[in-house]
Specification:
208 residues, alpha+beta, seven-stranded mixed β-sheet, single chain, globular
């Protein structure tokens, strides 16, 4: 971790970001993932909200998001609906929440604290801008091993209770997030059948 450095997104990293995106979400529809032009748009629209982890000149992790308002009375949405054009077009500087749109870490660099650092950076951003917290559609990669036996809702409940372990959801729970339900058809992904968990971190320092 000591040799790694973190910075915000700039346009020249767009091709590397796209390659990392495709390598991590290999079961997803590539057309629904963030494209090179989308990364360039992020770098123009809200670079402060998109973090990169570099090992020398190699990109090994990324975590992005935008500010927006969210209706918890009508929480169902897809990643394309919530993010808008270029997957960042719905960014609203005055929005109440930071919505995490993307997080990916190279398999060779996992368990080195990169994901935890990304969450620290996101939380710090939400606190500095006095946002209510962080929302995301949480990927649930291990659901593929249980989807024949239980629903997505049952699965996330069992992960939340500690009965089941999920490589992503369990990590998010350990980082202070709570599961608020499931999102149907969130992203086209054959492994999860499109399901994701709606996860929320409430900013304890938020003031109205």
């Amino acid at each position: 971790m000591t040799d790694l450095r973190f910075q915000t997104l700039t346009t020249e990293w767009a091709p590397a970001c796209r390659r990392l995106e495709l390598s991590i979400f290999e079961h997803a529809n590539p057309d629904e993932l963030i494209a090179e032009d989308d990364f360039r748009a992020y770098a123009r629209v809200f670079p402060e909200g998109f973090f990169l982890c570099l090992d020398g000149d190699q990109l090994v992790g990324q975590a992005g998001g935008i500010f927006l308002d969210f209706d918890f009375d009508h929480p169902q949405h897809t990643i394309v609906e919530i993010t808008g054009e270029n997957q960042c077009g719905n960014h609203d500087p005055d929005g109440d929440w930071y919505y995490g749109t993307d997080i990916a870490v190279s398999p060779d660099y996992r368990r080195q604290g990169i994901g935890r650092k990304f969450y620290e950076l996101r939380k710090d951003l939400a606190i500095r801008h006095n946002k209510r917290g962080i929302i995301a559609g949480g990927h649930m990669p291990d659901f593929v091993n249980h989807k024949a036996d239980m629903s997505a809702a049952d699965y996330v409940d069992r992960v939340a209770s500690g009965e089941l372990y999920d490589a992503t959801l369990t990590f998010q729970l350990e980082n202070g997030f709570a599961i608020r339900g499931v999102l149907e058809n969130y992203i086209e992904d054959e492994a999860t059948d499109g399901w994701s968990a709606l996860i929320v971190w409430d900013n304890p320092e938020h003031s109205t």
